[in-house]
Design goal:
Layout lengths: L2 H14 L8 E6 L4 H15 L2 E6 L10 H6 L6 E5 H9 L9 E6 L1 E6 L10 H10 L3 E4 L2 H13 L3 H4 L3 E4 L8 H6 L5 E5 L9 E6 L8 E6 L7 H11 L5 H6 L3 E2 L3
Helix pairs in contact: 1-2, 1-9
């Protein structure tokens, strides 16, 4: 990141943090889709505020024991959650979040990759995507939000759920797993689907594009405070920092869409 942008970010954080009484340890639970942005901007936040970020990773939803809803259900503590909005909806319904604390951070889209050097199939229309999947010998998808949507809704919308059932593979993501693109890069799947931000930075895989709008659920990464947050002021300062106009370039580079302010 350019030095001028870093200075702007540092100034912004200093202003936002002015209301906090002292430096705090902020326990952050975060899913993979926004992690690259968080990892790049986090050090500037820590340096400018004196706060320390203590990070736990896990999917926004799904059946993984590392999924954020599962972690909270078994009593793990966090001051702030950064995750897919669909996962946040689940937590809201369970009464595990603070009302009106949700802060949108970026818009995200489901995309597809193939192994590096392989022909990029047409997925520009619903019919083209359908033909591509019917021709694929193996299809990988994530164990979090995008994969849950495709396996329960998207493939049914395409009318091919039964035809491809024996050729699909659910991939466990970080922290104990890996991106879907890594599986495709090793040649263990012909095509792979995940949030774009989790696909485009994996060596050995070529990004094909996003799935058509008809198969694309509206997806936003958001920040929210769990009910047990012990450092809410510092947590809110972090979310404001990550959603600021100055952070937009980092959000874009990560494969996400900044939101208009």
């Amino acid at each position: 990141m350019a030095q001028s942008a870093l200075r702007l970010l540092a100034i912004l954080v200093a202003v936002l943090a002015a209301s906090t009484a002292s430096a705090a340890d902020i326990k952050v639970m975060i899913s993979a889709g926004f992690f690259k942005v968080y990892a790049e901007l986090g050090p500037a936040f820590e340096k400018s505020t004196g706060h320390k970020l203590i990070t736990t990773r896990g999917p926004s939803l799904g059946d993984s024991p590392e999924a954020i809803p599962t972690r909270l259900a078994r009593g793990e503590h966090a001051d702030v959650l950064i995750m897919d909005g669909h996962g946040t909806d689940i937590l809201d319904a369970r009464g595990l979040t603070r009302p009106d604390s949700r802060m949108p951070l970026a818009e995200s889209f489901i995309g597809m990759v193939v192994r590096a050097g392989q022909p990029k199939p047409d997925i520009s229309t619903v019919e083209a995507l359908r033909k591509t999947l019917l021709a694929a010998k193996s299809i990988a998808y994530s164990d979090s939000s995008s994969g849950t949507y495709l396996s329960t809704v998207g493939f049914k919308k395409l009318g091919i759920a039964d035809e491809i059932a024996g050729r699909t593979r659910k991939v466990r993501g970080p922290p104990s797993g890996e991106p879907v693109a890594a599986v495709v890069a090793r040649g263990e799947a012909d095509v792979g689907f995940q949030q774009v931000a989790e696909l485009i930075h994996v060596p050995g895989a070529d990004f094909v594009g996003t799935v058509p709008a008809e198969i694309q659920p509206p997806t936003y990464f958001v920040g929210v405070l769990p009910k047990g947050s012990q450092n809410p002021d510092a947590a809110v300062a972090l979310l404001r920092f990550l959603s600021s106009a100055e952070a937009a370039a980092v959000i874009t580079k990560a494969g996400l869409k900044p939101l208009a302010r």
